Amino acid sequence: MKRLFLMLLVCLLICTAAVGCTEENAATASGLVFEKSGDAYYVKDCSDTATEVNIPAKYKGLPVTGIGEYAFWRCESLTSIAIPSSVTSIGKGAFGSCSRLTSITIPDSVTSIGEGAFRSCSSLTSIAIPDSVTSSLGTEVFNYCTNLSSITIGNNVTSIGKMAFYGCKSLTSITIGNSVTSIGDTAFSDCKSLTSITIPSSVTSIGDYVFNECMSLSSITFGNGITSIGKNAFTLCNSLTSITLPDSMTSIDSSAFSSCKNLSSITFGNSVTSIGNSAFSSCTSLTSITIPSSVTDIGIYAFGGCENLTIITYQGTVDEWNALPKGNSWNSFVPATEVVCFDGTVKLK
Fold it and tell me: Residue 5: its pLDDT value, please?
C-alpha cells in the first residue's frame, strides 16, 4: 500500500512538473513575457532574438489586452508581429527602435497608442491608425521612421502630438481623420518627401514648426475650421507656390511662411486680424499681395526681404491703413512704392 502511495505521489509530482514546464516553455517558445493586471494579461517583455511574433489572444485562460511600455523596445531582430483583436492599448515606447520591423497591422480593437510607440522603426513603410483609436497620437509616436511612406490616421483620433512624425523623410502621403482638432509642434517637420497635405475642417490650430523644412510640399488645402497657424509652421517649404487661407483663420504667427522661396500667390481669408513678425519674410517669388481690411496688426519684418513684391493692395480705406499698427521694417527690401487702398493710395517710405 505504501509502495502504491509513493508511486502515485511520484506520478503526481512528475505531472505537476510537466504542466509547469509546458506553461514555462510556451512563454519561452513565443519569446514573450506576460504580466497579470486584474482579470487580464499584457505583454511585458520580449526576447531580443525574436524575429516573428504572434501575440496570443489569451494567456493562461485570460485575455491579453495590452502591450506594455517598452515591451519590444530595441528588439532589433523583430521583422513582423501579429496583434490579436483582444488588445486595446499599445504602451509608451512599445516598439521603439525595432529597426527591422517592416509592417504591422493595428487591429480595430486598439483605442490608445502611447508616446514613442513606434519611434525609430526605420524599416516600417506604411501604417494605418484604425477608427477605434479615440485618443491623441502621442509625442514622437512615429518620429524617425525614415522609410515610412504613407500613413492613414483614423476618423476618431482627436489630436496629433508633438514630433509625432518628425524626420519621416520618406513620407509622401498623409490622410488625417476628420476628428483631429489640433496638430502639435514639429509634428511633420523635416518630412522632406511630403508633397501635399489636406487639413480637415475639424482642425482649429496648427502648432509651431509643424511642416518646417518640408521641402517637397507643393500643395496645402486648409479646412474651414482652422483659426491659427503657429510660428515657423511652413518655413523653408520651398516647393510651395500658392496658399489660400480660409475665412476662419484669424492669426498667422511669426515666420509662419518665411523663406518659402517659390511662393508667388497668397490669398487671405476675410477674418485674419494678425500677421506676425517675419510671417512672409524672404518669400522672394511673391510679386503682389492683397491685405484684407480685417487686419489689425502687421508685425516686424512681416514682408521683409520679399525683393520682388511690387504691388500691395489694402481692402480698407487710406485712413484705416494709416491707423493700422505696423512693426518696424515690415516692408524692408520690398520694391513696392505705394499701397493701393479702397479710396486712394499711400506712398511708402
Answer: 39
Q: What's the pLDDT score for residue 257? A: 98
Q: What pLDDT does 48 receive?
A: 85
Integer Cα distance of 232 and 337 in angstroms: 28
Query: Comparing C-alpha atoms, which of 168, 66, 67 is closest to residue 119?
Result: 168
- Residue 103 pLDDT: 86
136 DSSP assignment: P
DSSP secondary structure letters along 198-234: EE-TT--EE-TTTTTT-TT--EEEE-TT--EE-TTTT
Which backbone phi and psi does 278 adopt, to 5 degrees? 55, 20
Rg (Cα) of the chain, in Å, rounded?
28
How many Cα atoms occupy the beta-carbon half-sphere of 7 within 13 Å? 4
pLDDT < 50 stretches in the chain:
1-29
Which residue in 64, 229, 343 sits closest to 197, CA to CA?
229
**What burial class does residue 38 get, using C-beta atoms within 10 Å of its C-beta: 0-12 exposed, 13-18 middle, 19+ buried?**
exposed
Handedness of CA 127, 132, 137, 141 (dihedral sign): negative
What pLDDT is recorded for position 155? 93
249-268, pLDDT tens digit by residue?
999 999 999 999 999 999 99
Spatial contact of 312 and 286, defined as CB atoms under 8 Å apart: no
pLDDT score for 173? 86
Residues 6+ apart with CB under 8 A from 125: 102, 103, 147, 148, 149, 150, 170
What are 219's strand-pairing partners?
196
| Cβ atoms < 10 Å from Cβ of 296 | 14
